[in-house]
Every structure is written in structure tokens, then in C-alpha cells.
Amino acid sequence: MVKFKHFAATAAGLAGFVSVIGAADRGFAADAAVDDAPPPAISGPQPLEKQAFASRWEVIVGGGASFRPAYEGGDEMEVSPIPIVSIGYADWLHLDPGGLGATLYKDGGFNVDARFGYEAGRSEDDGDLLKGLGDVDFGVTAGVKVGYQWDAFEFYGVIDKTIGGSEGLKGKIGANYGWHMGEKLVVATSLEATIADENYMDSYFSINAAQSAASRLPQYKAEAGLQRVDFDISATYAFNEHWLMQAGAGVGVLVGDAADSPVVENEWQPQVTLSLGYRF
């Protein structure tokens, strides 16, 4: 069954769209700054050359839709709108629907970024198995990302702490690879593993005695550890200097104690997105 609901995409999903738009934007800007020389057939996204623009500010607005499970572990798919508002200053400050990011340190390909965002939480109305488990409240997140850019690759590690909501701590390690295919098309792929602490696992995958009595699901204790692995691929097409479109697809796989939870209907978590953005 497919259902429509108000926007409730995760911060990660939103940031993914904006980052790929940014990759296409960097490639377009670099091409414009080399006397119209054509880019190589396949290459990594080039650093943004700010002197090509009259302003150090960048603004992207747009929207689209995602098709994904109604909750993490569910098998009922839903279509959700994705509003896009992205504001960046130079190469160190960025605000988008996923949150605020600021570069604290950068040396060659190495960088350290501060991150501030949110954890959307979960409603027991998101799935039949969640009835009686109660809601997981909205929370604010703060964290750090450490990354290294090498040619067309980026290798990174992230740690985020949720204040409120699950009160959880999550870490991610991953790699991105992006390349130009012609003058206007950028393709990007990513592979990421997520590790979650006991607070996060308890909030989303454990079932205590009271919840078991209310839901009739068996009691279950999910321990900290590797929680999921995600693979994504996307393509961003620049129609011109301003208009960009992105299509993306990916799949996440719940593993370990998360996959064994009684609230999980399907370990495989697919998603598809389609978005259109305008850069000022």
C-alpha cells in the first residue's frame, strides 16, 4: 500500500540531495572558469572557483518527492514531498533542510566540519506493528564530520549526538565517488555503514515489558552495534547555469540486532527520489 503524508524525510536524505546538487554546481562553475574548455569525459567534481561568481553566496531552492518506507524497518511505502532550500557561503558554511554545517579546519584534501541537524523521530501511527509502542520524539543533533578528498573519492567518518528524542549516539563511516559524464551530467555513488548506541537501538528497535503488553509483540532488547549499511547512486543534470534536476535510488540493509527486532517487517529499505532545483 502506498500512502501520501506531509514531509518527514530524514536529515540524511535531504543533505544527500543538496550535496549532489552541489557536486553538479561545482563542476558547472569550474567549466565556466576555463574559457569554455570541455571537461574530461569522466572526472571527479572540481573545486568550486568562487572568483567565477560575483558573490560568495549561493542559494538553491526547489523541491521534489521521495518514495521510501514509512518507518525504518517497515515494508509499507509512502510518497513524501521534499522541499529544498540550500544556502551556502564561500566554501565553509552551508544551511539546508538537513541542518547547518561549518568547516572548522581544512588542509589540502583533509577537512573537519561541525554539524547541527535533527532526528525526526517516529510515530506509532507509521505502521501497524508500532501500535502500542508509543512515539519517539523529535530531537536536535550535534556532531562532527572528518573527511578526506582524494581525486574523485571522499572518505569520511561522522558522529552525531541527539539531544532529546532518542538521546542516541550514531556514527557513520563511508565513501563517495563522483564523476562528470559530459558537460552537464554528474553521477555520484556512496557506500555507508551506520553504528548506533544503546539509546538509539532501544528507542527504535527494543520492546520493553510495558510496550509488549500494549502491542502484544514479544519483549526484545537491541544492543549497540552495526545497525545498517546503505548504498546509493544518483545523477544530477544541469540544464543551464541555474536549473538542475536530480534522480536518485538506493537501498539500505538493516543488520544485527536491528534486523532481528519484532518491529522490522523488511530488512531491505529501498528509496527513490526525484528533485528539481534552481540556483540563484
TrEMBL record:
Q: Where is the signal peptide?
A: 1-23
- Record localization: Cell outer membrane
Alphabetically sorted, this entry's keywords are:
Cell outer membrane, Membrane, Signal
Q: Where are the transmembrane segments?
A: none
A family per Pfam: MipA
Please give the superkingdom of this protein's source: Bacteria
Its family remark reads: Belongs to the MipA/OmpV family.
Annotated protein name in UniProt: Outer membrane scaffolding protein for murein synthesis (MipA/OmpV family)
Organism, by scientific name, is Martelella mangrovi
For this protein's source organism, the top of the classification is: Bacteria, Pseudomonadati, Pseudomonadota, Alphaproteobacteria, Hyphomicrobiales
